[in-house]
Amino acid sequence: MEYAFDIPSTCSGVVTNRCDLKVVNHVFEGLDDEHQDLFLKSCFRQLVHIPELKLSSQIIHHLLMRTLKSSDNEKDVVWFKFGENQARLGLQEFSLVTGLKIVDDPEYEVPKRSSSLLHLFKKKRGKIMRKDLLEKFDKLKKKEDANLKYKLGLIAVLEHVILSAECQTLVDEKWFHLVEDLEHFNSYPWGNLSYGYTVKLFKQNTFGKIKNPKSIQYSLHGFPLAIMVWAFEALPELGRQFGEHCSTGKLPRIMCWKMDKQLQSEKLTTFFNTSEVQVRRTLQPSSDEVETSYLKDSSITSEEQEIVPDDEEEEEGEKNVAEDEDEDGKL
Q1: Which of 103, 163, 177, 270 is least surrounded by CB atoms within 10 angstroms?
Q2: H/E element holding 305?
Q3: Cis omega (within 30 of 0) on the bond before 8?
Q4: Helices (DSSP H) in the chain: which residue ranges?
Q5: SS3 243
Q6: b/e map of 18-56 (b: 16 or more CB within 10 Å)?
Q7: Smallest Cα–Cα separation from 155: which of 264, 24, 316?
């Protein structure tokens, strides 16, 4: 298979990350005790527990350069090539990392119901932007407006973290209707939607003609931290060298990784240019993960993990190893 993009190896990336994980803490700290407890039971509860995790745009750029062209029968999956081996990033991997719910059939109609939240934006109907959400959130009182503040906080996290996009992108007002029913909001397949936003960069047809061979500019949307953590899981040596696996047994997997340092580009380039690298072709769920709230409504089952070791060529076969997971921390 050929690479999706003709990006010179000497071309660096000028990357803008639109996902702002700090919004999670801002919203959480702005809630009263009762609604903090509700947030810790919501579909976004895992975001509060993510350790210090700094996105490495350099890792994302190296992955972009190693993206393979999509095949017709796997249009929703992104494949990467490392040395002679390939690794897949699909809905399964995305959900295992993020803990966001996925379903086999993502068709989900959002009922249009009266929204008390939309009344807060009477003068901005049809043109509500992300910054408006936090501005209004901060103006609401913690006690007197507790329910409104909580629901608006969920939408703010959704728009700034899960479905992040360009600053001027308008907020889809159907989320205001959905959040009026918290049970439906929390059971929505956010993983399917967030995955589409996140991998859109890797699925586009081309970057066009690269005018400056030394650098290209692009933005990261959706939940790009998931891509970096997936890389730590799919390329175990990458995780060992550049990340910190800080916990075992916690689910989802994003809760087990830390990275609070600035990476050296020379070391990353050396790593990714290595022809022999251990690769997990796919990420397979443990029996505990299959039973989690974010996977149980999909057809994904627990299988043995495929690993291509660094001393074995792809055509000679792949070695299967089973990954054990503790029950502690299952969402």
Answers
A1: 270
A2: strand 305-308
A3: no
A4: 22-29, 33-39, 57-65, 91-98, 130-139, 146-157, 174-178, 182-187, 190-203, 225-234, 236-242, 265-272, 287-290
A5: coil
A6: bbbbebbebbbebbeeebeebbeebbbebbbbbeebebb
A7: 24
For the chain, the C-alpha Rg in angstroms (whole number) is 20
Q: Are 278 and 236 in contact (CB under 8 A)?
A: yes
Both tokens assigned to 125: 């109907």
Distance CA(264)–CA(252), nearest Å, equals 28
**Residue carrying structure tokens 């700094």:** 54
pTM of the model: 0.89
Helix axes 190-203, 91-98, angle to 10 degrees: 120
Of the candidates 329, 112, 93, 292, the residue with the CA atom closest to the CA atom of residue 195: 93
Reduce the DSSP state of residue 80 to 3 states and report it: strand
End-to-end CA distance of the chain, in Å?
Answer: 38
Q: Measure Cα distances from 155 to 8, 117, 128, 321 in Å.
A: 39, 10, 12, 40
Measured torsion, CA atoms of residues 153, 155, 157, 160, in degrees rounded to the nearest 10 = -130
What does pLDDT average to in each consecutive run of 10 residues of the chain (331 residues)?
A: 88 93 98 98 98 93 95 88 96 98 86 88 90 97 97 99 95 96 96 97 77 84 98 97 89 94 87 90 95 93 58 39 39 55
Q: Which helix (H) or strand (E) holds 144?
A: none
- What angle in degrees, to the nearest 10, is found between the helix axes of 225-234 and 190-203? 80
- Could you tell me if 117 and 176 are in contact, meaning their C-beta atoms sit under 8 angstroms apart? yes
Contact 12, 215 (CB under 8 A): yes
